[in-house]
Amino acid sequence: MKKVYPDAASALDGLLQDGMTIAAGGFGLCGIPELLIDAIVASGVKDLTIASNNCGVDGFGLGKLLDTKQIKKMMSSYVGENAEFMRQYLSGELELEFNPQGTLAERMRAGGCGIPGFYTKTGVGTVVAEGKEVKTFDGQDYILERGIVADLSIVKAWKADETGNLVFRKTARNFNPPAAMCGKVCVVEVEEIVPTGSIDPDLIHLPGIYVHRLIQGAHEKRIEQRTVRKREEA
Amino acid sequence: MPWDRNQMAARAAEELEDGMYVNLGIGIPTLVANYVGDKDITLQSENGMLGMGPFPFEGDEDPDLINAGKQTITELKRTAYFDSATSFGMIRGGKIAAAILGAMEVDEKGDLANWMIPGKLVKGMGGAMDLVAGVGKVIVVMDHTNKHGESKVLKECTLPLTGKGVVDRIISNLGVLDVVPGGLKIVQLADGVTEEELRAATEATIVD
């Protein structure tokens, strides 16, 4: 089965529908599927539920989908400095389900691994625990969290081979593997598609079984907080 | 004179022992890395990295290499990268010896609030709830009072909690306190700060 598509719009063809749930990789603006986000903006699909640690920044990444009001609900751990995200949430235009970051990552991983729920001590005694089953193991309380199975995963990797085996780069890996795992369909964008067989099988970070469609493209890779030190401090 | 940001960070660095794997939060906790000296400390960044290095030199920034505060950073020889689920597996699983975090409020039972002010400021908990639930020791670094002079070291937190009964030690601009049964115990006073001054700035019960 051929996985490689010419561009983001064709890779998403037939996969988008109003009201769907999408899991997106990335942390801040690092390792985000920029090209697929742009194509989803262009498609006009709406009432989306998006599971992603952040929602981009104003005007970039998933922030673009906030500007166009295509998102109904976010499942995230951090709003941070995204002014439009905070505005839409505080005004009630946007539903926001706060998830502790590790709980969100594990919910995606578990959903992709056929685990419908798991117990964690993260969030016990906080608003995160409200309405959730509490169970005591060995004298300690844990809350039940559900695995996430998304209709679609959108993911960014560094390299892929033509069968979808993926390699990530540095901290751009972040939520991409768990997001890829939890989608019924997973579309991946990479900086380079290399011939099958040219990646050492021992060095593949995510096997192609999780990848259904694949595109190669140029990425802006915007930096959110440029921090440097002067050379004379060396 | 109460401690300034750098003196608080330097005091927090004294908590770290050779060989520890440690997670530092955003703000003053980030400065702790400047004061670890010769101790062999490995810094974890919860977005998927062990062995976090200093900020890059100008021109060497890599958009694929950031810390949990989204700042550009560098790698070290010992660096390892991993995904977010693995990262929080090591946090939740108790493999990280200590976390040093900021706080909006802390109370005498070790409850911590540092992620939102309802109706006003929505930051999100990020990885803080996972860290305080999972790591070996939770050290809070904070100003003892707010800009109106009101205590942030309370009998009971008023803001939504990050964790319940999770704080082990508080390092403030006025000194060091431990969370013990019945309240907080003074461990150390900041240079030039009297016990009376610290007690006056503390709403929480102080026990001997």
From TrEMBL, chain A:
Protein's recorded name: 3-oxoacid CoA-transferase subunit A
Q: Does the keyword Aminoacyl-tRNA synthetase apply?
A: no
Keywords carried by this UniProt record: Transferase
Q: Which InterPro entries match?
A: 3-oxoacid_CoA-transf_A (IPR012792), CoA_trans_fam_I (IPR004165), CoA_transf_BS (IPR004163), NagB/RpiA_transferase-like (IPR037171)
Q: Name one GO molecular function term.
A: CoA-transferase activity
Q: Which family does it belong to?
A: Belongs to the 3-oxoacid CoA-transferase subunit A family.
Source organism (scientific name):
Albidovulum denitrificans
- The answer to keyword Transferase applying to this record is yes
PROSITE patterns cross-referenced by the UniProt entry:
COA_TRANSF_1
Q: Which NCBIfam families match?
A: pcaI_scoA_fam
Q: Which Gene3D superfamilies does the entry link to?
A: Glutaconate Coenzyme A-transferase
UniProtKB/TrEMBL annotation, chain B:
- Care to name a GO molecular-function term for this sequence? CoA-transferase activity
Q: Which family does it belong to?
A: Belongs to the 3-oxoacid CoA-transferase subunit B family.
Record keywords: Protein biosynthesis included?
no
The name on file for this protein is 3-oxoacid CoA-transferase subunit B
Superkingdom of origin organism: Bacteria
Does the keyword Transferase feature in the UniProt annotation? yes
Q: Which UniProt keywords apply?
A: Transferase
Q: Which organism is it from?
A: Albidovulum denitrificans
InterPro entries named in the record:
3-oxoacid_CoA-transf_B, CoA_trans_fam_I, NagB/RpiA_transferase-like
